[in-house]
Amino acid sequence: MHKKDFPIFEKHSDLIYLDSAATSLKPKSVINAVTDYLSHASTNISRGLYPLAEATTERFEAVRKQTALFLNADPTEIIFTGGTTQAINTVARLLESKVDTDSEILVTTMEHHSNFLPWKELALRKGCTFSLLLLTTSGEISLDALRSAIHPHTKILALSFVSNVLGTINPISEITSIAKEINKDIIVIVDAAQAAGHIPLDMKALNVDFLAFSAHKMFGSTGLGVLYGKKEILETLSPVDFGGGMVQDACAVKPEYKALPTCFEAGTPDIASVFALGAAITYITALGIENIRTHEKELVSYAIENLKKIFGNHITILGPTDLEKRGGVLSFTLNGIHPHDIAHIVGEQGICVRAGEHCTAPLHKSLGLSATTRISFSVYNETKDIDRLIEALKEAQKILLK
Q1: With left for phi above 0 and alpha for psi between -120 and 50, is residue 358 left, alpha or beta?
Q2: CB-based contact 372:163 (threshold 8 Å)
Q3: Which domains are seen in the chain, by residue range?
Q4: What are 2's strand-pairing partners?
Q5: What is the mean pLDDT of the chain?
Q6: CA 281/CA 367 separation, integer angstroms
Q7: Which terminus of the chain is less hemmed in, N or C, by CB atoms within 10 Å?
Q8: Intra-chain end-to-end CA distance of the chain, in Å
Q9: In 43-82, alpha helices (H)
């Protein structure tokens, strides 16, 4: 338990924060990385020739290398973006030339809108088929259904690593192998926003073509994302954003752009947030990603056991029953009480939970639900947080089920 590393608890000592899937809290080391840059080295990158700016550039590129090591990738495959949403939208535009009216784009019903709408819009622009891969009753991807769904004309498969509602951890390596065995030209894109910083990410082992995540969900700052792209694919694609920093010769009849990955990073990036990401990766590495995973799995196990024990048939917990297939996310409904009412009542007691569709309208529609209550865990949580939530839920029942 690492509450001491997070300054927010110094001001809010009784805070129970169970909304890390929305954004994680920030440790001191990450905050210090931002303030240090803004206070002592607030220069741009790849432009100034004076020592202070050159040092900023070196530090920026060092974080790129650190991120590549974190993902077992090459630094040229790491593109900094404005977040997971921007990263996936960028990939959708990059791949526009790869699809036509005969193509199919396949996504799952568990997707966050950020990995759903960009592909639906691409399909509408190109006049191609947009298909949904349905889930099992336990909220998982059936590999048999996957085999049946992929065809030679399936050009794109987009899916989440970890569902932000169900908590399902998808077997990405196995899914990618199946997809590419059926169609060697398929492009696999993974939304890893709920996986980064929680479970190991190894690009060589996963063999996906693109993977995106946000820094702010793994102890970093908002406004920064990471897009991994296989080098051999990126080399076949042309930039879709243009401006300063990414061009080699703007005066040529056909402009010449810089090499990977700079050609995909037009304009000034969020430098402070990149340094915060470096500090976040250092923090995660020091704790040990496997230790983080074990801690969150223990909390999910404790939460499921005790929620069921206290509320019995009145509570419905979504997602897989096998803890090995679950991340640190747990969504539920409580009979007779709207999730918004739950969030309001427990919130008044200093307990932060999420209520609503969680940007997954297709999933909630498929489940016949208008909303769910979600709790999500991180390294600053402990079992007594769950105990306090349960007491608050019992209080909500007393108030609302009179």
Answers
A1: left
A2: no
A3: 3-26+288-400 (3.90.1150.10), 29-285 (3.40.640.10)
A4: none
A5: 97
A6: 36
A7: C
A8: 38
A9: 51-71
- Helices assigned H by DSSP within 153-211: 172-182, 203-206
Tokens, residue 384: 């007594």
Contact 116, 84 (CB under 8 A): no
CB 183 within 8 A of CB 154: yes
Q: Which amino acid is at 102?
A: D
- Look up residue 301 and give its amino acid: S
In this structure, how many other beta carbons lie within 10 angstroms of the beta carbon of residue 397? 18
- List, in sequence order, every residue forming a beta bridge with 312; answer none if it has no partner: none
Which of 217, 221, 196, 215 shows the shortest CA–CA distance to 272? 221
> Is the separation of the CB atoms in 88 and 193 below 8 Å?
no
pTM of the model: 0.97
The DSSP call for residue 245 is: T
For residue 248, give every residue at least 6 positions away whose Cβ sits within 8 Å of its Cβ, in sequence order, or none: 255, 256, 257, 258
Collapsing DSSP to helix, strand or coil, 304 comes out as helix
Beta-carbon contacts of residue 204 (< 8 Å; ≥ 6 apart): 72, 73
Q: Are 132 and 362 in contact (CB under 8 A)?
A: yes
Closest to 267 (Cα-Cα) out of 2, 110, 85, 80: 80
* Structure-token pair, residue 315: 């509570």
From the list 376, 67, 381, the residue with the least C-alpha distance to 201 is 67
Catalytic sites, residue numbers: 359
Provide the 8-state DSSP code for 134. P
Residues paired with residue 106 on neighbouring β-strands, in sequence order: 131, 157
Transcribe 8-19 into DSSP letters: HHHH-TT-EE-B
Closest CA to 153 of 212, 94, 213, 99: 99
With 0-12 CB in 10 A as exposed, 13-18 as middle and 19+ as buried, what is 376? buried
Distance CA 141, CA 325 (A): 11
Q: Give the model confidence (pLDDT) of 327-386 as tens digits.
A: 999 999 999 999 999 999 999 999 999 999 999 999 999 999 999 999 999 999 999 999
